[in-house]
Amino acid sequence: MSQKNLYSQEAIEKIKDIATDVDFCMLATNLSVQPISAVPMSTKKVDDQGRIWFLSNKNSDHNADIIKDDNTQLLYSGGSDMKFLSVYGYAEIVHDRAIIKELYSSTDNAWFDGEEDPNITAIKFIPKEAAYWSNDDNKVVSLFKLAKAAVTGEKIDMGTSGKIKV
What we know:
The chain is of the alpha+beta class. It has four helices and ten strands, in the order ββαββββαββαβαβ. It is globular.
């Protein structure tokens, strides 16, 4: 696996690429207490500054955790291209109804009583640092490379990894 560290705009683009492609992540809060609290969240938006946005219930445990300690980690894993992203940063609870309306979609009706539900909040996650791993080939090529390595014993390059600084 080759390594490429990313900075500034290139870092934001990598975060946006993986977070929007994979969509669901585990949002880990209460990081100083073990076991940490982690819940699945759907990425609603990655803005031009690399901030990642979610919708959440104001009465949720993770909202309470963020209010006590804003240090947070996001773990993305998956997608057909085998992309992975670990992002450490801090989160803020946002009550701005215009932002909530912008982020809300009909699929959110599974968790809320419409976009005017008074229990909806947005979570704005601000990344500090991250690490990524991404496969540069499609699944068929990756499987071929793995099979070749198993037969020949050769080392193979399965993609790119690196640190990200926004």
